[in-house]
Structures are given as structure tokens and as C-alpha cells.
UniProtKB/TrEMBL annotation:
<feature type="transmembrane region" description="Helical">
    <location>
        <begin position="182"/>
        <end position="202"/>
    </location>
</feature>
<feature type="transmembrane region" description="Helical">
    <location>
        <begin position="214"/>
        <end position="234"/>
    </location>
</feature>
<feature type="transmembrane region" description="Helical">
    <location>
        <begin position="385"/>
        <end position="405"/>
    </location>
</feature>
<dbReference type="InterPro" id="IPR036259">
    <property type="entry name" value="MFS_trans_sf"/>
</dbReference>
<feature type="transmembrane region" description="Helical">
    <location>
        <begin position="96"/>
        <end position="116"/>
    </location>
</feature>
<feature type="transmembrane region" description="Helical">
    <location>
        <begin position="326"/>
        <end position="347"/>
    </location>
</feature>
<keyword id="KW-0812">Transmembrane</keyword>
<dbReference type="GO" id="GO:0005886">
    <property type="term" value="C:plasma membrane"/>
</dbReference>
<keyword id="KW-1133">Transmembrane helix</keyword>
<feature type="region of interest" description="Disordered">
    <location>
        <begin position="1"/>
        <end position="33"/>
    </location>
</feature>
<dbReference type="GO" id="GO:0022857">
    <property type="term" value="F:transmembrane transporter activity"/>
</dbReference>
<feature type="transmembrane region" description="Helical">
    <location>
        <begin position="447"/>
        <end position="466"/>
    </location>
</feature>
<feature type="domain" description="Major facilitator superfamily (MFS) profile">
    <location>
        <begin position="59"/>
        <end position="547"/>
    </location>
</feature>
<feature type="transmembrane region" description="Helical">
    <location>
        <begin position="524"/>
        <end position="544"/>
    </location>
</feature>
<keyword id="KW-0813">Transport</keyword>
<feature type="transmembrane region" description="Helical">
    <location>
        <begin position="63"/>
        <end position="84"/>
    </location>
</feature>
<feature type="transmembrane region" description="Helical">
    <location>
        <begin position="417"/>
        <end position="435"/>
    </location>
</feature>
């Protein structure tokens, strides 16, 4: 284990949420019976304690395994939805089966961030895992749509706390010089999990039952709970402000949560209805779109008046460094998610590949994402320079997305594998950089809040862009069919899985449907192209500066490095 010596004393918040210098008085600590100092002070300097060796990797393994579990569940239900609708006999809830998890995953991240700020990360993390496992049990045993949807909301709530907590724990236990590489590896685990989730879901649905998509979480989640209890203890340089439970509840900003959650529900409903079950001119569609805009504006108004108690304290977005990196974290997934979710649809529908073959053909995307993510993390950790990785990553992603946009029905294997290499490497270079940057420039008392904001931006990408892509794809598919094959039952087309098209349709009907599928996929890829180009331009606005330097850890005797177990 090791320490790092700093010359500045971090700050903590008092009960009113205002910043005050953290006390390091020994008499105060003795009075409370607990070490409440931010760090140990020697000769006017503060020491920060970080893990090394097997203890660090034991924690990293636990965090990565839990991230794997949480990210798998985001997409694992995608290929199971047809079987679920067969059991529940309620096709009108299909959008909620896959979308509900994004609602709670994206909107509760800042709430978890506040909990991590005021309560021991060890216990908050454990609670998030328990909530996720409870949601898994409810989903696996659900007999109708409503309990299943509630279960997916619980899983999203648990995933939100687990994902944000995993990144925060890396900041707590790993030396700053190692954090970029470890966060890059975490991003890779998350990426791989999101891609293989639908494949695992398809395997369970085809060979066992869709309920095993959720039962599988228990034998994996149980050991994660045990590992957290055994290996993770909050280092004593991590300070928790002493506030009342009333103040903690007020800090959760429940009014802000209500506004952002309601706005996302309205957005989801409007895009699920618009052009599909209801015309865009329908009053319900227009009303939900208007309410989405009004509630989103209302959210920022609430955040302004909430001040330090806000889910997203607006002072954390004031500087150019802060707001550009936050916006980059939102937009980089606009490009990524469109390809992530619709490349398999291209493989399975247009090219008639199985779910397994589709997964194999996305390996270039996964592999180069991993290479780019770990490469940028390692180099940034050494050089502390980050802006070029965001810019070059955006440029490469733009080129890759442009090449994917030109792919067509008759494209060869090399034609659709090659662009994935460029696109995956570009996304990997930049996707985790905003989190590294803002954590390094943020004072100790705001790390949890900043982490939760970035996780929220990443998750909102799913809530907004995946829902938006589904609307674009479905509407363009129907528009194309209306021209090329007006006699086809479009509701049957939408209800048929991508891998089942060739079993349900034949001849000219199948040819027309595949061509229409290609139209929808290309438009989604065009959206990905626009998102990638935007990130490249945004990177030019990000300040060109170095992350704060870190000193090499000072070796200490193991018995001198004690940790806070509360």
C-alpha cells in the first residue's frame, strides 16, 4: 500500500451545503470517537492512502465483475422481448420492457452521487447491488407486464448506483497516476457487457427460458456482495461531512429528480407513439413533446434554486472545462449507441446472420474500442494531456461512421468489418476522457457529484438517443414500405424479430422488407455520423491544458496504513 503527499487540505461541506475548510484537529476526532479528518497530516502536509498489489486488483476485479453484471442487464432483455410478449400477451408494453431501465438508470445517478458523498461508499454500494438483485428476482418471477416493468425500474435504480459507485471507488482506492488506465479498462468492460448482453439473452431465450436472463444475476451478484464486504474499506483520506439525516434527504433533490424523470417519460412516450401507433399530429404526441420541453426547462430552474442541494449543482458546469467535458460525455454515446444497437440488426436482418454470428462480427468494434480506451488511459496517465485524444477520437469516429453509412445490402464482409476498426478505436480513445479529466480537476468534496453527473450523461444517451434511434428506424422503415410494398402488414413487420424475417416473409415481400430495413439502418448510422462529427468539433472547444500532476507514491510500512471501515 502507498501514500501520496499533497500540500493542500481538501474542503468539506457543512450542514447547509456550503463549503468550509475540513478540520484536522485531533481533539475533534477524539470527541466524536471517529477519525473525521480528510487525511493524515504530517509536517503541514496531507497524505492520501491508496491500495497497491493484490489488494488493489482484488477490488478492481470486484468492481469490474459488478459492472459486467449491471451493463449486461441493460441490453440482455432486447432479444428476449418477443418471448416475453408471448407470455404476457400485451404487445402495447413492448417499449417499456426495454426502455424502463434507462429511465431510472439515467435519472437517479446524481441521487446516488449525493448518497456516496454523505454516507460510506461501502454501504451505499452494497445497497445498490441488493436493489439490483431484488429487481432481478421480481423480473424472473413476474407473471404479468406491470410487475415486470417495476422490476426493470428497480434494476435500473440498482445499476445506476453500481455503475457510478464503481468509477467512484476507483478514484478512492487507486493512485491518481493509475486511475486513467483503470477507468479505461472499466469502460472496456462496460462496452463488452453491453454488446454481449443481447447475445446471452438470445441464448437463454432460445435454449432455456427468458427468465434465466434475470436468474443468472443471483449466482454472480452473490459473490460480488461477499467480495465487497471482504476487500473494500473506505480509505481514511475520504471524508464524509457530518450532517443530519434531514439534510441528507434534502440533498437528494427529490424535486429535481421528479422533473427530469417525468420529462424523460414524456419523451419516451412521444417517440413510441409518433408515426407508429399514433400520427405525429395526434394531440397526445404533441402534448407529450411539449411537456418534455417544459419539464426539462423546469428541471434546470429547480436546479438553480436548489443551489448546493441540486442533483446537478450548476456551479460544477460553469467553467469551459466543466461544461465541454460534460457535453462530450453525453454526445460521444450518441455516436456509439447508434452503431452498438443497430449494427447487430443490420447483421441479423439484412444479412440473415444468427445472434451468435452477429456477435462475432462485432468483435472488431469491441476489440478496437478496448485498445483505444486502454491506450488513451495509459498515455494520459503518463503525460496528463487529454484534449488531443478527444479530438482525434472524434475524427476517427466520424470517418468510421461515414464508412458504415455507405454500407449496403450487398456489401462484402471486409466492407462492414473495416469501418468498425476505425470507429471503435476512435470512440475508445475519447469516451472515458471526460470522467478522468473532471475527477482530476475536482476538489475532494465534489468528486462524487462530478462522477454521478458524468454517469448520468452517459446514461441519458441511452434514454434519449436509443429511444430516438428506435423512432427513426421504425418510421423510416414504415415510410419505405409504404412506397415499395404498400400491401404488406406493417404491424406484423414490426412485431417480427430481426432473425425471424425469413421465416415469416418470402419472395418479393422479403426483398422489400430487407430494403426498407436497410433504409432505417442507414438513417440511424447517419445520426451516428452527425454525433461523431459534433464530438470532434466540441473537442476543439475543450481547453488545451494538462491534468494536475501527481507525485510518485511514497512507500509506507503496511502497519502504518490503516483504513476506515465505516
Amino acid at each position: 500500500m502507498s501514500t501520496q503527499t499533497e500540500t493542500t487540505t481538501p474542503k468539506a461541506e457543512d450542514d447547509t451545503g456550503h463549503l468550509s475548510t475540513a478540520s484536522t484537529s485531533n481533539s475533534d476526532n477524539q470527541a466524536t470517537g471517529k477519525n473525521d479528518t480528510v487525511a493524515v497530516v504530517h509536517d503541514g502536509k496531507t497524505e492520501f492512502f491508496y491500495l497497491e498489489g493484490w489488494r488493489l486488483w482484488a477490488i478492481m476485479g470486484t468492481l469490474y465483475l459488478n459492472t459486467l453484471l449491471a451493463a449486461l442487464d441493460v441490453g440482455i432483455v432486447a432479444t428476449a422481448i418477443p418471448a416475453i410478449t408471448d407470455d404476457f400477451q400485451q404487445l402495447n408494453y413492448v417499449g417499456w420492457y426495454g426502455g424502463t431501465i434507462f429511465l431510472t438508470l439515467s435519472t437517479t445517478s446524481p441521487v446516488w452521487g449525493k448518497l456516496y458523498k454523505y454516507i460510506s461508499a461501502r454501504y451505499v454500494y452494497l445497497v445498490s447491488i441488493v436493489i439490483f438483485l431484488v429487481g432481478s428476482i421480481v423480473a424472473a418471477t413476474a407473471k404479468s407486464s406491470i410487475p415486470f416493468i417495476i422490476a426493470r425500474a428497480l434494476q435500473g435504480l440498482g445499476c445506476s448506483g453500481s455503475i457510478g459507485g464503481s468509477v467512484l471507488m476507483i478514484n478512492y482506492v487507486a493512485h491518481p497516476a493509475k486511475q486513467p488506465m483503470l477507468i479505461g479498462l472499466w469502460a472496456t468492460v462496460y462496452m463488452i457487457s453491453t454488446i454481449v448482453g443481447p447475445l446471452i439473452g438470445g441464448a437463454f431465450t432460445s435454449h432455456v427460458t427468458w427468465r434465466w436472463c434475470f436468474w443468472i444475476n443471483l449466482p454472480v451478484g452473490g459473490p460480488v456482495l461477499v467480495a465487497v464486504l471482504l476487500f473494500f474499506h473506505v480509505p481514511k483520506h475520504v471524508h464524509y461531512p457530518k450532517v443530519s439525516w434531514k439534510e441528507v434527504i434534502l440533498q437528494l433533490d427529490l424535486p429535481g429528480f421528479a422533473f427530469i424523470f417525468a420529462s424523460l417519460v414524456c419523451f419516451t412516450l412521444s417517440l413510441q407513439w409518433g408515426g407508429l401507433t399514433k400520427p405525429w399530429s395526434n394531440g397526445s404526441v404533441i402534448a407529450t413533446l411539449v411537456m418534455w420541453i417544459v419539464l426539462t426547462i423546469g428541471f434546470f430552474v429547480v436546479e438553480y434554486f436548489q443551489g448546493e442541494r441540486a442533483m446537478i449543482p450548476l456551479r460544477l458546469l460553469k467553467t469551459r472545462l466543466q461544461w465541454t467535458n460534460t457535453l462530450y460525455a453525453l454526445m460521444v454515446n450518441c455516436a456509439e449507441f447508434q452503431v452498438l444497437f443497430y449494427l447487430p440488426i443490420f447483421f441479423q436482418s439484412v444479412h440473415g446472420q444468427s445472434a451468435i454470428a452477429s456477435g462475432v462480427n462485432t468483435l472488431p468494434f469491441i476489440a478496437l474500442f478496448a485498445v483505444g480506451s486502454m491506450m488513451s488511459g495509459g498515455i494520459i496517465g503518463k503525460t496528463r494531456i487529454f484534449q488531443p485524444f478527444m479530438f482525434v477520437g472524434g475524427l476517427l469516429a466520424t470517418v468510421g461512421a461515414a464508412l458504415l453509412y455507405t454500407v449496403d445490402i450487398n456489401s462484402s464482409k471486409s466492407r462492414y468489418l473495416g469501418p468498425q476498426v476505425i470507429f471503435g478505436f476512435g470512440i475508445g480513445l475519447g469516451c472515458q476522457v471526460p470522467l478522468m479529466v473532471l475527477q482530476s480537476f475536482t476538489s475532494a468534496e465534489d468528486v462524487a457529484s462530478v462522477t454521478s453527473i458524468i454517469v448520468m450523461m452517459n446514461s441519458l444517451s441511452g434514454g434519449y438517443f436509443v429511444t430516438g434511434a428506435e423512432s427513426v428506424f421504425d418510421n423510416r422503415l414504415l415510410e419505405s414500405l409504404a412506397v415499395t410494398a404498400p400491401n404488406i402488414d406493417t404491424s406484423l413487420v414490426l412485431a417480427t424479430g430481426a432473425t425471424e424475417l425469413r421465416e415469416v416473409f418470402h419472395g418479393q415481400e422479403l426483398t422489400a422488407i430487407l430494403a426498407s430495413y436497410m433504409v432505417g439502418v442507414k438513417d440511424v448510422f447517419a445520426w451516428s455520423l452527425a454525433g461523431a462529427a459534433f464530438t470532434a468539433l466540441l473537442a476543439l472547444v475543450v481547453p488545451f491544458k494538462k491534468m494536475p500532476p501527481v507525485e510518485e507514491p511514497v512507500k509506507e510500512k503496511t502497519e502504518d496504513v490503516k483504513e476506515e471501515t465505516a
